[in-house]
Amino acid sequence: MGMAPLGTSVPVGHMLRRCAANLRADIDMVVADTVRAVESGIPEYARPADEAYHRTLHAGVEQALHGFLGILERRDDTTWRDVYRAIGAGEMREGRSLDALQAAIRIGARMGLRHVVEFAESESLTPGMVGSLADAIWSHVDDLAEAAAEGYAEARAAEVGDLDRRRRRLLHLLVADPPAGDEAVAAAALAARWPMPRRLAAVAIAPGEVQTLPPVLPPDVLADPRHAEPVLIVPDPESPAQLRLMVNTLARYRVAVGPAVPPEAAGHSLRWARRALDLHGRGVIGGDGVIWCQEHLGILAVFQDEALLAALVERRLSPLAAMRASQREPLVDTLLSWLQHNMNANAVAAHLHLHPQTVRRRLRQLDRLFGERIHDGDARFELEIALLAEQAGRAERVRHAKRDEPAPHPAAARVTRPGAPAVRRAR
Predict the structure, then answer these.
(1) How far apart (Å, rounded) are the C-alpha atoms in residues 256 and 114?
(2) What is the pLDDT of residues 198-244, one digit of tens each?
(3) 356, 346 Cβ separation under 8 angstroms
(4) Do 155 and 16 lie in a common domain?
(5) Deepest in the core among 85, 288, 300, 303, taking most CB within 10 A?
(6) Residue 192 lies in a domain
(7) Under a CB-based contact definition with an 8 Å cutoff, are residues 94 and 45 in contact?
(8) Are residues 132 and 30 in the same domain?
(9) Can you give the residue range of the structural domain that contains 41?
(10) pTM of structure
(11) Which helix (H) or strand (E) is 202 found in, with range?
């Protein structure tokens, strides 16, 4: 014996429970109709050959309807929320947006509303009662979409975090000392979704700059700014796009860009970049903003082994050892310029802004001090290195001496080209 139609004075709660009972009796049919409508209306979900996917779609529709029943029956059942969070996460992992899922939810809502309208007509419900049922449906649709969006966002955040970890691991494999094996690096690059470039450059960042680094870097730049010695790996560093990145984005910070090298030599690029940062901090390499190692290769080469360099300076510049700084420095500048200008006194005078007679007088003094050593090819090579180191050390001493003065001073050293003296003074 069927239930009598509802009257216009029946409480809303009773009407909702009656609607729930009606829907529950037909739920298998409603689920099947909704699944067919979703599969025919949304190509992404039409997978007739994939039985497992069809069962997943069926379970999702069923959970949505049971969730709606819970609202009608005023039960505190939120199982459907966990299901739709998982569905949203699945959409993200399959590389889709939420558009298809939201369209499927709307199709399900229309199918449910169609059933509710039939129930309302059979029960002669008032427009107000029909409106209450429609509100319940669309409110549930919003809840389903919200749960799916939460799952989607959580899955994306987890994937981004995992990808960041993989990229940091790849970065440290690339610059490891001793170097990591080619197979390990290739596998890490694949896991990090990072195409291996033909050439790359390591960028060393001064630790004090970490907090002010730009929050967003291009996706192909590997970064670990929070490391004790922060570093970036920039692929194809000589391309116009990457040069713009380094000039425009990093110019405000104290960073050094290592030379472009093959991936297997990334550790060398980083070591040279960190060395350049150190020499910049000591005043040996001057300038503000980005330090380009390729512009300072001579100084970097000279300062690779400072103990050995000190021994070379002591040996090759021994004729100047007893002199005061005021005597020694003009002779160092003159002799270095003479060696660099093919022993042309007039060129030395022009370069140091001195009278040619002053240069010749100094050269005669140097000839008495050094004798044949300044004319011997092999000795001249070591002598030039020693003179470069002498000038660079002088710049560093000047910088240290001026640190405690109240007025700011420009950097004492300026290297204008690879192998150029750090300081040039005219005496």
Answers:
(1) 67
(2) 999 999 988 876 665 555 678 889 988 777 788 999 999 888 888 88
(3) yes
(4) yes
(5) 300
(6) no
(7) no
(8) yes
(9) 12-160
(10) 0.55
(11) strand 200-205
